[in-house]
Design brief:
11 strands
Length: 510
């Protein structure tokens, strides 16, 4: 990221502290730093393997990598060489914080916040987003009754690192959320759309979408609704993805995935370019089939399951892809782009792009916030707005249909799976109530709309959903349940990298 100044002599080298950081002088320098400051990885893969979107498939021809196995079995992930590993995520997101802090320090020391409003706002938002993302991996879901306990948060550096080995404290999750909120609120009035490629930055829509998701997790529902509305505008349907046009695209190569993350797609508020192999694991490449989103999950819980709208695959009309007849069942959303560093040797780097904030997910954030405030019909209106674009048959649900469907099916068990998972949130929720049924509908729809993108694990954590590790045979029959994770299980907070624990940062309890 930095320009390295040539050294003219040995004496010059000894006279100055070696430093390969770029020198910041003006808005152009700040902008250049921020262009390259965004994290180059995304935790979707580990979140999907860790969540209830994966089963273990038993077949001698199916394989899984060590990293997959550790994530699936909820073990400490000490395999740190992968692009999706917790260590790689930790390093990348804290590097983003460091770069953001250099911009923030420059602006604040020069006393020119108004002159550098775009860069200052973007840096504040990037810092908040980076630490918040780390918290979704390494912390429990926010719960007001436990958030102020020691070492439940993550380090939140407010200035650039001054020396190697500087010691940071984890603090509390309450402190972390308060600092994220402070950065967001300070940044939002400054954020603009003055970018050559605005979809790769925290533009106005992306910033409000991030704020909406954050405030939903923070349980400040009025603010979640406010910011979701700011991102969506007065006519949200105009910004939603044209799912049927996407469904109709060619199944060959990267046509559908590339269309999903296109920068000219109105639904995409912000795109993040990453180094990743997730597009291989969740593509038709026969990779990592042992731990995967298999037919048993797809047929009874997700993309081919029944819902209040009918059979999901038939009603929504999306093309479903398979690794083979018995393992993965998937939608083509995540691109796989290989950059060759040496074509003759066949080596290089795998890349992908994520739609980290988009209109469809933001609309469902608003729907959930309304339901949690008791505005069930308002939440249903937003659900129906999403269904009008997501379904191929123009589905529009009534409250009677929602109540009838979820009251008419049993809660999920490994032996008799359904899309209805028992909810144990931190707040009081009456089982079988109209509010619970509407939340069930919202959670099932979001699981479909955001499949393979890593958000399901956050819903599991926030609603205290019990997860099971199911071993399934070639006929998709349950062989055994190998483990269970309930609300409050300390393993819901993924273990910190061993390298971080070794230098003194308190580990997550086990």
């Amino acid at each position: 990221m930095a320009a390295v100044t040539g050294l003219t002599s040995c004496n010059d080298f000894l006279d100055e502290l070696p430093d390969n950081r770029m020198e910041l002088n003006d808005a152009e320098d700040l902008g250049y730093l921020l262009v390259n400051a965004y994290p180059s990885c995304h935790p979707a893969a580990v979140f999907e393997w860790y969540s209830d979107n994966s089963n273990e498939c038993v077949n001698t021809s199916w394989t899984g990598e060590r990293f997959q196995e550790q994530a699936y079995y909820w073990q400490p992930i000490n395999e740190s060489s992968g692009y999706e590993s917790p260590k790689y995520v930790w390093d990348n997101y804290y590097a983003a914080v460091e770069n953001a802090n250099h911009v923030i320090k420059f602006v604040e020391e020069n006393g020119s916040e108004a002159s550098y409003a775009d860069q200052y706002g973007e840096a504040l938002m990037l810092r908040a987003y980076s630490v918040f993302t780390l918290s979704t991996m390494f912390c429990q879901a926010y719960d007001p009754s436990t958030a102020d306990q020691p070492n439940t948060g993550m380090p939140y550096p407010l200035k650039p690192q001054e020396y190697v080995g500087e010691i940071y404290e984890r603090g509390t999750l309450a402190e972390l959320y308060a600092r994220v909120e402070a950065d967001i609120e300070k940044a939002l009035p400054l954020i603009g759309n003055n970018y050559a490629k605005p979809k790769y930055h925290f533009n106005k829509e992306a910033s409000h979408a991030f704020a909406a998701r954050f405030y939903l997790y923070y349980q400040k529902y009025d603010k979640a609704i406010e910011h979701a509305t700011a991102a969506l505008g007065s006519n949200p349907s105009a910004k939603l993805r044209d799912w049927q046009a996407w469904n109709a695209l060619s199944a060959n190569k990267m046509v559908q995935p590339n269309a999903y993350i296109a920068s000219n797609e109105d639904a995409n508020f912000m795109l993040q370019v990453v180094t990743s192999q997730w597009g291989v694991y969740i593509g038709p490449y026969l990779a990592g089939e042992k731990f995967t989103h298999n037919h048993r999950i797809a047929d009874y819980e997700t993309i081919s399951a029944e819902g209040p709208w009918g059979n999901s695959q038939e009603v929504f009309g999306y093309q479903v892809f398979y690794n083979d007849d018995m393992s993965s069942k998937m939608l083509r959303k995540i691109p796989y782009i290989f950059e060759y560093s040496d074509i003759q040797a066949g080596i290089g780097f795998p890349h992908s792009v994520y739609s980290v904030f988009n209109a469809d997910e933001t609309l469902l954030v608003r729907a959930e916030a309304k339901i949690l405030k008791g505005d069930l019909l308002g939440g249903l209106d937003d659900i129906n707005a999403e269904l009008s674009k997501f379904s191929a048959k123009g589905v529009s649900l009534t409250q009677i249909q929602v109540n009838g469907f979820y009251n008419g099916i049993n809660y999920y068990t490994p032996q008799a799976p359904t899309p209805k998972k028992e909810l144990f949130p931190w707040f009081s929720l009456q089982k079988g109530s109209e509010q619970e049924n509407m939340l069930q509908c919202l959670l099932q729809l979001r699981r479909l709309v955001t499949i393979h993108e890593g958000l399901r694990l956050q819903d599991v954590k926030r609603y205290g959903i019990t997860m099971y590790r199911c071993r399934v045979n070639k006929s998709n029959q349950l062989l055994e349940v190998t483990d269970t994770m309930k609300k409050g299980d300390p393993r819901l907070a993924i273990q910190l990298p061993q390298e971080v624990i070794a230098v003194g940062l308190p580990a997550n309890p086990r």
